[in-house]
Amino acid sequence: MSMVVPARPKIEATVENAVFVVDDVHLSFGGIVALNALTFSVTKGELCAVIGPNGAGKSSLFNVISGVYKPSHGSVRYRGEEILGRAPHQIAALGVGRTFQNLAVVPAMTVLDNVLLGGHLRYRGPLTVLGGVLRLRGEVKAERRLRTDAHELLERIGLAHLAGEEVSSLSYGWQKRVEIARAMMSKPSLLLVDEPAGGLTQDEVHELGALLRGVRDEFELTMLLVEHHMGLVTSFADRCVVMSAGALIADGRPAEVVRDPVVVAAYLGEDD
Fold first, then answer.
1. Phi and psi based region of residue 6 (left: phi greater than 0; alpha: psi -120 to 50; beta: remaining)
2. pLDDT of the chain along its 272 residues, tens only?
């Protein structure tokens, strides 16, 4: 059965079960089209991978979802609520967490302090100075709750033994885990994970995939994963959408999608 979808693909998830919907989104930079009538949806609890050759628009999609870019047309709805036009911190406060393709950890800080950075939005909004003197009683209680939550999260993600270590002393694979833990501290219900397998060994990729599935299951998350590593996608994703030149060209089970002739053709000439 062909996995190719029309130029204006129909949204598969229904209104009742779609937690996240991208509908006819257009984004251009001058004469360069980054997203072209992009339409798809994600069901609650799904781990959906987004793949495509370099320049397909995957990073632009994440930047639209998280409020960094504003498209010229279309809609992005999260739990039935329009999020286009909102500031990044407002979108994060709605329950949308994100990791980045290039590590955004603070190397000179400890693992614990990096993770704490991700939790302050819950109580204080954007943080300017971590570990500053908290004078108000409510802030002191909030800081204690954050530290308790951070230690529990580090335990659950397998980082407790590294809590006091500077992030710069860790391997790249462990730093990726720190970034995931930091994103989880905001208690998201939708987590955007941007190319987590980049720079990892094959064994680390498998461990990462198991971690992502475990985090998704334990915390009852919906997860959107941009990734080039096909082994990670086919082994751990529930579903896969494929982008090329800013448009959706395929949507289905990973093992079937990666064999689709249109998808294979889209990757010709790429090293992915």
1. beta
2. 333 333 334 334 444 578 999 999 999 998 899 999 999 999 999 999 999 998 899 999 999 999 999 999 999 999 999 999 899 989 998 999 999 877 778 899 999 999 998 886 555 444 444 444 444 555 667 778 888 999 999 998 899 999 999 999 999 889 989 999 999 998 999 999 999 988 888 899 999 999 999 999 999 999 999 998 999 999 999 999 999 999 999 999 999 998 899 999 887 644 44
Nearest to 248 by CA among 230, 260, 232: 260
3-state SS of the chain is CCCECCCCCCCCCCCCCEEEEEEEEEEEECCEEEEEEEEEEEECCCEEEEECCCCCCHHHHHHHHCCCCCCCEEEEEECCEECCCCCHHHHHHCCEEECCCCCCCCCCCEHHHHHHHCCCHHHHCCCCCCCCCCCCHHHHHHHHHHHHHHHHHHHHHCCHHHCCCEHHHCCHHHHHHHHHHHHHCCCCCEEEEECCCCCCCHHHHHHHHHHHHHHHHHCCCEEEEECCCHHHHHHHCCEEEEEECCEEEEEECHHHHCCCHHHHHHHCCCCC
Instruction: Give the whole-angstrom CA distance, residue 205 versus residue 196.
Output: 8
**What predicted TM-score, i.e. pTM, was given to this entire model?**
0.83
Q: List the structure tokens of 146.
A: 């954050």
Contact partners, residue 122, CB within 8 Å, separation at least 6 = 146, 185, 186, 187
